[in-house]
């Protein structure tokens, strides 16, 4: 399949790229400052241009999203808006604009995260964003069929424990390779409206 | 208890008001164009003024939220932003600004809805908003304790079947009086971080 991979240069995107390429897929890498195609997906005009340049694809895979982390008392309306733009609206726009460019039974796979269901202190904007994304995926699935849409919702990566482990005490981490397999499952499988928890 | 009820003039707010008053509570009604105190909760400055005028309260109860309904292909980024402001950020701001004004073991009860988990066509912005709100509630609960926060997430009201029933084929409706009891449960109970499905 021809697959558009957004956030290909990141920790997760690199692992997803490796797994999809190993499965024989033709992966077009997308990033803000690296990759086959450059795009800031939080800018709708750049998303329009991205799809125009990519041509018809079989799958769109999102592996990038940004949300601020601060104690609830310090989070401002602007912080929540930044989380909404950085992880929710940017990925919704990939779907909204992508529908005409994706194959009839093609798919979208978006990135969510464990904070949708398991909160941590300083994570309320991230929780909000992940909850929004997952509910959107369930809703979009029934409207874009036979195109498909799923989310991958991992906990902290084993490979990132040094940096983020203290935020997830006692929570089992997940290997990046297993998260990447959830993307493979979404891209090559037939389900839709699913939230895969690798 | 002294309770601030936002959206008191609406279909749901009227039922919640009746149930809380019947339990002997002192309910301060809030609305954009009616009620004891006037406030457009989507405007942070008006929320600041609302809390200044209300004084210390034991509970803040939200019964108002607005999201656009359109087919996915017609929803624009502006529509998703309107849903975010109209149901998510407005209620988050009630919490963010309300914490210093609510009693130590007081509570916030926000309004979500069935579309967070059961999507319908034209409802992807509403689903997104409800999913965001519910995840925020779970996250805020662990940071504002011993203050509490819950959401009420009803399906279509029995009393609104004439107007909205066609959007919820085969889904059991819920009586407004039962939804109002979920608010009573949140306000007078001791749980936090819960999504009550009446």
TrEMBL record, chains A, B:
PANTHER family: DIHYDROANTICAPSIN 7-DEHYDROGENASE (PTHR43477:SF1). Keywords: Oxidoreductase. It comes from Streptomyces polyasparticus. The keyword Aminoacyl-tRNA synthetase does not apply. This is Short chain dehydrogenase. Belongs to the short-chain dehydrogenases/reductases (SDR) family. InterPro entries: NAD(P)-bd_dom_sf (IPR036291), SDR_DHRS6-like (IPR051122), SDR_fam (IPR002347).
